[in-house]
Amino acid sequence: MADIDLPSRLFADREEPAGDRVNMYFKLNTIKAVLKALTPKEIETIRPCFGKLLDLYSQPVRTGHITLTYRRFFPSSFRLDQRPNPKPLNPFQFRSNGSKPMEEASSEMEVEVQNRQLSDSSSAQNVKNFGLKNSIQTNFGSDYVFQIVPKIDWTAIAVSLSTNTVKLYSPVTGQYYGECKGHSDTVNQIAFSSDSAASPHVLHSCSSDGTIRSWDTRSFQQVSCIDTGNGQEIFSFSYGGAADHLLAGGCKEQVLLWDWRNSKQVACLEESHMDDVTQVHFVPNNPNKLLSASVDGLICLFNTEGDINDDDHLESVINVGTSIGKIGFLGDCYKKLWCLTHIETLSIWNWQDGSCEVNLEKARELASDSWAQDNVDYFVDCHCPGGEDLWVIGGTCAGTIGYFPVNYKQPGSIGTAEAILGGGHVDVVRSVLQMPSEYGGTAGLFGWTGGEDGRLCCWKSDENSTENNRSWTSSELVVKPPRNRKKNRHSPY
User: Fold this and answer.
1) In a domain, 38, yes or no
2) What phi-psi label fits residue 412: left (phi over 0), alpha (psi between -120 and 50 degrees) or beta?
3) Which residues span the domain enclosing 63?
4) The pTM is what?
5) 36 domain residue, yes or no
6) Domain assignment present for 32
7) From edge to edge, which strands make up the β-sheet containing 22-24?
8) Is residue 41 part of a domain?
9) What is the domain count for the chain?
10) Which PROSITE patterns did the record assign (predicted)?
């Protein structure tokens, strides 16, 4: 990426050193101040390097001797959504009409690996012979893949795109099923219904157009829509509550709750956060508890029983200290919480008592030191297949991703990558979906990835391989079968 000489006035007040290629991260208010300080001419100067829907992810952009990492939430006037010079269609792309079978994907994409031994500070681990057998690349031209989610029975996967649409495919063959269209702005989150009996075909989505919509994936038609009424963006959603009747949405400085059965708003929690709410999650085994995370660096715990309000139902607050990107549950009883921030830090918390088990402020540097690839430029997500094990998934701007094991016992560490998926993407990876062994095992599938190159890549495994290559994974990463537990149940009908 070419260096851009931005005005020195933007950094005149900064105390951080400006040495060669220093990573300088700014909090949200500083980012906004920097953007507002740019003239229209300067915006046009950097536009070619900012053509990646910056309002939804990050991309390092070098500015002379300084590397800025811009993040998700910018003023709408700075959403530079036009992608310059789209990459040509890949000759091995999977046709959108599903006419090209998986077996016809390029044999040149086949990469396989030998058995290896990985060792950490405690013990060596046997590495099974997984790798990228072939990559079905569905090239959407200038469209980006934002998120990939599975249907509860894994008969379909849904893929959200930068065109404000959601497309559906077979997770085994890659066959294209159809698309759900209706949102008028960025689709920020998608999820299938968790109720396999009442509404197995229902897909939910929330958007910056201020709506949460439900779709019947058999007909690809909208079956319900909840609207904020004032057009404010919805960044995340979650279903839960004592009777599984609540729908929570994370908006600008607010957490809104509806009774999805009648689409009526039952609460507006607006005094707990001071900035955009990036995540909302009902606790899996405690559906009355709702966690929200925000750009303001706070994770709030609410009790959603009774008449919900900020004063009586805010139970505790965790101060992470910097803008929060993603959170997720960890452990057999879901008592722990992992947290990825917008400046690539990783921390583990006990959400019940608010204690921090470990805070890895230099997580990206630790991951970069743990493999022979290029530096880890960003974190995509965390992977928790069950139990106490945790991996953080890091990627490069060239499209290689790695699974790094996290030791969150004090002082905490990040180990050598136990899976490396390379050769499928040529740009930033936005989403990683790993298939459980009971669904992907027969076909030898490891999972799917999607990214800013417009590719939807399917990763296969082959335990009979004897050839060396750069893509491989540990048997420890196998997704464990779900335990018997009461599932959240909801239906949009």
Assistant:
1) yes
2) left
3) 8-78
4) 0.71
5) yes
6) yes
7) 22-24, 66-70, 59-63
8) yes
9) 1
10) WD_REPEATS_2, WD_REPEATS_REGION
